[in-house]
Specification:
With 286 residues, the protein is mainly beta. It has a domain of 77 residues. The protein has two helices and 17 strands. The longest helix has 9 residues. It is elongated.
């Protein structure tokens, strides 16, 4: 941990933990000179978490840190959780100009020559919320192919959703929780399955499913020459993973021409499961 030039206007010392990671501590002007001159003698403590980066290698991310000198402690400034920070923690990288993270994941398509495939993870939904008297933040990502098609082509970005009429979209998800001034990754999963239609991710929203419990809801729409349908899926945290806890599908199936030359339709409704949450339980009951 090294310090940078003191910002007298903001009264902060930028701290460099590694070349790509810069934090800051608040130091009053009257104490700045002494800390600057004796920074090498100050006690520096930082707590890191581990998460897999874009190449599935373990990478540290900062949870908390402080600098102590002559009985005075300077905490690394608390930062609100946001998309850029959440993406950086989940994937180990994030482009603030292209607005995606890179990730090597299991191939979506059957590729005999590769176990892993380059993807670009694009944030499709995020929302701060409060659950069990704790501030939390949910992040949902969708993937597009991150491999250049030839040497001159740039990797594809978020405008490339919808380039496959018959495809769903691989989805990633994370929930962060705040403890004091510290934000921790409560649960992160880069691949929870594939959802959506026509190469587009589903519409996501956060819904209340219990007295103090929230789940992610995906809703979509599909249509073809056989009819149309509206799928709804609920995703929640179950025993340390994100799991589909409920799925409902309503579809209008085209049967045959009626006497007026139009089509007859029949409505079909199906659901996968039903669960119940009991207050005080840490996991849902099936």
């Amino acid at each position: 941990m090294t310090r940078s030039v003191y910002d007298a206007d903001k009264q902060v010392f930028p701290l460099i933990l590694r070349p790509e990671n810069q934090e800051s501590i608040f130091v009053p002007r009257v104490e700045a000179k002494q800390l600057k001159e004796n920074f090498s003698h100050a006690e520096k403590i930082a707590t890191f978490g581990l998460q897999l980066d874009a190449k599935n290698h373990a990478k540290e991310y900062l949870i908390s840190g402080k600098v102590t000198y002559q009985g005075k402690t300077y905490e690394i400034e608390n930062r609100e959780m946001n998309v850029a920070r959440a993406m950086s923690i989940l994937y180990g990288n994030y482009s603030t100009t292209k607005h995606y993270s890179k990730w090597m994941g299991e191939a979506k398509w059957d590729e005999p020559d590769a176990d892993y495939h380059p993807f670009e993870a694009i944030p499709i939904f995020n929302k701060p919320f409060r659950e069990n008297d704790t501030n939390k933040f949910i992040l949902v990502t969708g993937y597009v192919n991150g491999e250049a098609q030839n040497e001159d082509e740039e990797p594809r970005g978020e405008d490339n959703f919808g380039d496959c009429h018959t495809c769903s979209v691989k989805i990633g998800m994370a929930v962060f929780s705040q403890h004091g001034v510290i934000w921790k990754l409560e649960l992160g999963q880069k691949d929870i399955g594939s959802y959506g239609e026509s190469g587009n991710p589903p519409k996501a929203s956060l819904v209340k499913i219990g007295k103090d419990r929230y789940a992610l809801m995906f809703s979509g729409y599909w249509t073809n020459n056989l009819g149309e349908g509206v799928p709804v899926d609920f995703i929640d945290r179950v025993n340390g993973i994100f799991k589909e806890i409920f799925s409902l599908a309503t579809k209008e199936v085209r049967l045959s021409l009626d006497t007026t030359g139009g089509y007859k339709y029949e409505t079909e409704t199906s659901y996968s499961s039903r669960i119940e949450y009991i207050q005080g339980c840490s996991a849902p009951l099936k």
